[in-house]
Request: fold
Amino acid sequence: MSNKKAFFWGALTGAITGAVSALLLAPKSGRELRKDISDTAVKVGGKTADLSRQAGSAVQTFAKRATSLVSRRKLNGEAALEAEVEPVYETEDSVKQ
Reply:
């Protein structure tokens, strides 16, 4: 697992744990506590959705760049192969004559 990914999951876990601990240890009535938990869950859900969209966008960008790079490498490789094979065909033709 990459360091960035591990840090992200650690930070997310720590944030959730901290939020839940703060809510449970605060002196509030049951109704207030449930409302706070609900509000926090909505905020975490929204942030998670935003991060998911950003990650999806980053993956799509990476995939497009990788596809483009592979296509260019393939074209360059085919051109290089043709340049190497052409003298072989010329030699073969001269031997046949």
